Amino acid sequence: MSKKPYRATPLSNAQNVRLGGIIAVLGGREPYDYILGDLVQDGFVERVDGALRLTERGIKEKERLTILAGLMFEKDR
What we know:
This protein is mainly alpha-helical. It has 3 helices and 2 strands; from the N terminus they run ααββα. The protein has helices spanning 13-26, 33-41, 56-69; strands at 45-48, 51-54. Helix 1 crosses helix 2 (33-41) and helix 1 (13-26) crosses helix 3 (56-69). The chain starts with 12 loop residues before the first helix and ends in an 8-residue tail after the last helix.
């Protein structure tokens, strides 16, 4: 019987980076510039009155990625 190699998360590297950036925004932090640029360009994050916030698309992406990773968030900030 052969074993499958251990994999910590079912998310790809790109999905991990995106989820990390989204979590940073939820925590009131600003992701690295290259991550933030991708999040803004893809329509997941916007800057409102100088603060970053998730768009509706960003909230849906957060939900999708957290479910895939086996995580749950109770409330968005």
